Amino acid sequence: MRIVPALLAWLDLAGIAMFAASGALAAARARQTIVTFLFFAVVTATGGGTVRDLLIGAPVFWMQDSRALAACLIAGLAVWMTPRRWWRPKALDWFDAVGLAVYAVYGAAKALAFGISPLPAAGMGVVTACMGGIIRDVLAGEPSILLRPEIYVTAAALAAVAYVGLGELGVAPQIAAAVGALAGFGLRALAIGRGLALPAYRG
Predict the structure, then answer these.
(1) Torsion angle of alpha carbons 178, 180, 186, 188, nearest 10°?
(2) Can you tell me the distance from the alpha carbon of 105 to that of 97, in angstroms, rounded to the nearest whole number?
């Protein structure tokens, strides 16, 4: 089960651009320099994909395709050059939500394309979607998104599992990808907009 190459490429670039923008916005919150903006954009957008590629034995994507780094730099520059008033307080969360959903699907799809079985492939989707945000938060000195009560990893898991599961049921890859990404984004949007969270351990 594979996404058609054209859609795969678009999903990849879309996820990269959204995560890069979220990284640059983290630098904006900290009032950093243009160099830091670009560094945050690149690390946030490539972190999850790099870990995924190393784990599944694939060539590291941004070393093979210069469009990935170009998308990061363009997104970082776009945030740097726009007035701060354009970015609402939760803009970082919304960019991250789009990147999360798209990259979860893309990560699972790439793992499947490299012969990984369905369940680990869904796990690779989660790694792809979440690792960049974790690295961004660590670099920015903010509490990791994993330690916040609102739903994050669960949204990535929903997107990846929906894509893989629908594909196993024979649904066309394009439809499975769209449903998975929309489901993941929808759940994350509820977490951002309404504070939706899983119950915490109470001992």
Answers:
(1) -130
(2) 13
129/132 Cα distance (integer angstroms) = 7
Phi/psi for 41 (5° steps) reads: -60, -45
Report helix, strand or coil for 66: helix
Count Cα neighbours of 115 within 13 Å in the Cβ-side half-sphere. 3
Instruction: In whole angstroms, give the CA distance from residue 114 to residue 66.
Output: 21
Taking CB atoms within 8 Å and a gap of at least 24, the contacts of 189-194 are: 189/97, 190/151, 191/150, 191/151, 191/152, 191/155, 192/90, 192/93, 192/94, 192/97, 192/150
Query: Does the predicted TM-score (pTM) go above 0.90?
Result: no
Each residue's pLDDT tens digit, 64-93: 888 999 999 999 999 898 877 766 667 778
Task: Quote the CA–CA distance of 112 and 28 in Å, as a whole number.
Answer: 36
